[in-house]
Amino acid sequence: MADNTANRLWKQLPTIPDDKPVLIAGPTASGKSALALLIAERCGGVIINADASQVYDCWRIISARPSIEEEARALHRLYGHIAYDQVYSTGHWLREVTPLLSLNPRPIIVGGTGLYFNALTEGLADIPATPPEVRAKADMISLPELIAELDSQTLGKIDIRNRARVQRAWEVVTATGRSLADWQANTSTPVLDVSDSVSIVFDAEKDWLLDRISRRFDQMLDQGAMDEVATMRERYDPSLPAFKAIGVPELMACLEGRMTLDDARARATIATRQFAKRQRTWFRARMKSWHHIDAKV
């Protein structure tokens, strides 16, 4: 982050007491990790990941994980610690992050996975893990068919354009006999109250963010994203969550001759823009009480 940009962002921040954890949420490519590092260096803190793709050990470049140089500047936790073939849920993350809340120096929790922040500050329903055979069956069903089998209460709580969310709801009702909405009605007590933290969310103007997304994917390619994906080619399984990270299916198709690099770049960029739009919608709706800062500075 350039010094001028860092200073302008810094001026938008609320007061950061020594005894308060910091939460930083925002859409992809908005500059969250850079701000977390700035706060860690100026105020002290351990940076903790709250991004679902950055937990996997196989993806540093394609998931925009902090670089080795950045990790050397402050202590980082929950980055790249999960094997590619492991399933990692919001429940897994919440169980791992909970004991880290008492860290000294303070935890700085940063990422773009809204469900992680929601579970942390609003509680999480204790839903049993989905059996592999149920997930395998769900993978074979079209999105409209999945939607057709869900109850109206659940449909009102999820983004029906997001296949992962719809499929999860279908898996829950199929495996447990109870709807996702029913499970969520019995949510646990939150681990952290927003009022007991410094909670920051990035507001990112659409056109500004789309330009950054386009440039960042090209930067990933320059940094070796294609080679990173190529190392996982023999282990590629599109049903595993790790391989659903944006950019992975597209670059894998390019490696296998099913797509040109230009097409892969275009499709990955479009997918990232769509993802960012869902994130912006989520944060605006669910994080109204958080301190909002303007990413475009």
From TrEMBL:
Protein origin, superkingdom: Bacteria
GO molecular function, one term: tRNA dimethylallyltransferase activity
InterPro entries for this protein: Dimethylallyltransferase, IPT, P-loop_NTPase
Keyword Magnesium: yes
Annotated positions binding ATP: G26, P27, T28, A29, S30, G31, K32, S33
UniProtKB keywords: ATP-binding, Magnesium, Nucleotide-binding, Transferase, tRNA processing
Reported cofactor(s): Mg(2+)
GO terms for biological process, alphabetical: tRNA modification
UniProt xrefs under Pfam families: IPPT
Function: Catalyzes the transfer of a dimethylallyl group onto the adenine at position 37 in tRNAs that read codons beginning with uridine, leading to the formation of N6-(dimethylallyl)adenosine (i(6)A).
HAMAP family in the record: IPP_trans
Subunit structure: Monomer.
Family: Belongs to the IPP transferase family.
Stated name of the protein: tRNA dimethylallyltransferase
Source species of the chain: Ruegeria halocynthiae
Lineage: Bacteria, Pseudomonadati, Pseudomonadota, Alphaproteobacteria, Rhodobacterales
